[in-house]
C-alpha cells in the first residue's frame, strides 16, 4: 500500500475544517488517512536516515550491497513506529467499519469541494485502502440530489424529464459543485432553459486512472439511458479539463462493448481538455525523475506519491494499455494508443489563453496556465494522434484562464449557439 507524505495532511485539515457535520464515516476516513500520512512521513525520514548512515559508515554500505533483508536494514525505532501505526489502523477498522456504512449527512458546498481536492491528489490511494473518504461516481440533478440509474426512483428524481440529456463532467480536483458557477451562471440550467435539455452533473474520484473512470462512466451512461423515464432521443456530454478525457475514454470503451448509449451521443464538448497532456504534469514528472537520481533528494520526490489521475495527465492517457506495465514516475516517451474521435458524434473544442491575442507566442506556449493551446485543440505532430476537427467546431478565447471556462458568459453563449 502506498504511504502518503505529510503534504496531504494540509488538504485533510481543510476538509475537516469545512465540515458542517462530522459523521462516523468522515471520522473513520480522516483518521485512517492521518495514519497513512504518519506512515509516509516515517518512511521518508527512514530513507534519509539510512542514506546518511551509508555515507558515514562504510559497513552499512556493505550490508546494502550484500543484500541484507529490509527488516535488518531498518532501524528498530522505525520498525516500532510502523508496527504501531499498523496496529492502530487495524483497531480503527475493527472499531468503526460497522458504522461507516451509514448514510452521509448533507455537507456544505465548500466541504464537498475540499473533499474533491483530496480525492484528486490521492484518490487512488483512498480507493485502494477502502477509505470512506473515497468518492464514488454518481450523477446529480439540478437540486444536488443523487440520481441512481439502477433505482426505480429515477423518474421521481428527474421531474419533467426531457428526451434530450446533457451530462456535465468536471475536471481534476473539482466536483459537480463547480458547474453551479460563482460569476455568470449555471451552464446546465442555461441549456435546460434555452434548448430543453435535462442536465445531470457527474461527480467522480479524479485520482483514479482516467481509463477506470471512463469505463465506469460508460457503464453508468448505459444504465442511465435504460432507466430514463421516457425514450432518450439525444445525449450530449460536456467535459472540463480531465472531464473531456474521461468522456473520450468512455466513448472508446462504450463503442468497443457495443453499448447503445454511444448511438445516442450526438454532441461531445471539451473545455480546456489536455488531449495530449498538461504542461504542469509534464514538469512535475521531470522534477520527480531528476530528484530520484540524487540520493539525498530522492526521499523528497513527492511527485511519485501523486495520484494515478494526475500522472495520466502527463500525456493524456485514455486507456488501460497506456499505463499498464509502465512506471509512470519514469521519464518515458508517449506510449499512448491513438484514440480517434468517435464517428457519428459532433465534437466541439473550446480552449483559452491568458494572453490578449490568441495567436501570439505567449498565448501558444502558456495557454490557459494549465493546458497549452495545441493540447486543448487536439493538435499533434503525429497524424495518428492528431484529432481531426472542423475549424467551425473549435473556439479559442483570449483573456481567460482554465477555471474561467466553467462559468464565463462568452463560453456559455458559444455552447448555446452550438447546441441548438
Strand order of the largest sheet: 2-1-4-3-5-6-7-8
CATH superfamily of the largest domain: Alpha/Beta hydrolase fold, catalytic domain
Along the chain, the helix and strand elements come as HHHHHHEEHEHEHEHHEHHEHHEHH
Helix/strand class: alpha/beta
* Beta-strand segment tally: 8
Q: What share of the residues does DSSP label as strand, in percent?
A: 5-15%
What does this structure look like?
The N and C termini lie far apart (49 Å). This protein has helices at residues 7-17, 24-56, 58-65, 70-73, 76-96, 109-128, 154-157, 187-195, 210-227, 242-256, 261-264, 279-291, 308-312, 361-366, 373-376, 404-407, 409-418, and strands at 138-140, 146-147, 164-169, 198-203, 234-240, 265-271, 346-353, 394-398. Helix 1 packs antiparallel against helix 2 and helix 9 (210-227) crosses helix 10. The model has no long low-confidence stretch (mean pLDDT 80). Strand 1 and strand 2 (146-147) form a beta hairpin. The chain has 420 residues and is an alpha/beta fold. Strands 2-1-4-3-5-6-7-8 form an eight-stranded mixed beta sheet, sandwiched between helices. The chain is globular and about 60 Å long. The chain folds into two domains: 7-128, no CATH class; 138-277 and 336-418, Rossmann fold.
Amino acid at each position: 500500500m502506498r504511504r502518503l507524505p505529510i503534504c496531504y495532511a494540509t488538504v485533510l485539515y481543510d476538509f475537516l475544517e469545512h465540515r458542517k457535520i462530522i459523521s462516523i464515516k468522515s471520522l473513520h476516513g480522516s483518521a485512517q488517512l492521518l495514519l497513512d500520512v504518519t506512515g509516509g512521513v516515517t518512511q521518508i525520514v527512514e530513507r534519509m536516515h539510512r542514506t546518511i548512515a551509508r555515507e558515514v559508515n562504510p559497513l552499512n554500505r556493505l550490508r546494502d550491497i550484500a543484500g541484507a533483508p529490509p527488516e535488518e536494514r531498518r532501524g528498530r525505532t522505525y520498525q516500532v513506529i510502523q508496527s504501531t501505526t499498523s496496529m492502530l489502523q487495524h483497531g480503527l477498522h475493527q472499531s468503526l467499519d460497522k458504522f461507516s456504512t451509514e448514510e452521509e449527512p448533507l455537507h456544505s458546498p465548500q466541504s464537498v469541494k475540499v473533499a474533491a481536492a483530496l480525492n484528486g491528489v490521492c484518490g487512488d490511494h483512498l480507493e485502494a485502502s477502502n477509505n470512506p473518504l473515497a468518492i464514488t461516481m454518481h450523477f446529480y440533478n439540478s437540486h444536488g440530489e443523487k440520481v441512481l440509474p439502477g433505482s426505480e426512483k429515477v423518474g421521481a428524481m428527474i421531474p419533467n424529464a426531457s428526451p434530450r440529456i446533457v451530462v456535465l463532467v468536471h475536471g481534476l480536483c473539482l466536483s459537480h459543485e463547480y458547474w453551479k458557477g460563482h460569476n455568470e451562471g449555471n451552464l446546465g440550467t442555461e441549456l435546460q432553459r434555452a434548448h430543453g435539455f435535462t442536465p445531470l452533473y457527474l461527480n467522480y474520484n479524479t485520482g483514479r486512472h482516467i481509463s477506470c473512470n471512463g469505463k465506469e462512466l460508460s457503464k453508468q451512461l448505459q444504465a442511465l439511458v435504460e432507466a430514463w423515464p421516457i425514450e432518450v432521443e439525444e445525449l450530449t456530454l460536456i467535459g472540463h479539463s480531465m472531464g473531456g478525457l474521461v468522456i473520450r475514454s468512455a466513448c472508446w470503451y462504450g463503442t468497443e462493448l457495443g453499448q447503445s448509449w454511444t448511438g445516442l451521443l450526438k454532441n461531445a464538448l471539451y473545455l480546456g481538455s489536455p488531449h495530449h497532456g498538461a504542461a504542469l504534469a509534464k514538469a512535475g514528472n521531470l522534477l520527480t525523475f531528476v530528484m530520484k537520481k540524487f540520493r539525498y533528494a530522492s526521499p523528497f520526490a513527492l511527485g511519485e506519491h501523486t495520484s494515478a489521475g494526475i500522472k495520466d495527465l502527463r500525456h493524456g492517457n485514455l486507456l488501460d494499455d497506456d499505463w499498464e506495465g509502465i512506471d509512470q514516475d519514469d521519464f518515458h516517451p508517449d506510449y499512448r494508443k491513438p484514440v480517434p474521435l468517435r464517428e457519428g458524434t459532433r465534437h466541439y473544442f473550446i480552449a483559452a489563453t491568458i494572453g490578449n491575442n490568441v495567436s501570439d507566442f505567449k498565448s501558444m506556449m502558456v495557454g490557459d496556465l494549465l493546458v497549452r493551446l495545441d493540447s486543448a485543440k487536439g493538435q499533434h505532430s503525429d497524424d495518428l494522434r492528431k484529432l481531426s476537427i472542423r475549424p467551425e467546431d473549435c473556439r479559442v478565447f483570449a483573456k481567460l484562464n482554465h477555471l474561467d471556462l466553467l462559468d464565463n458568459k462568452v463560453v456559455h453563449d458559444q455552447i448555446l449557439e452550438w447546441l441548438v
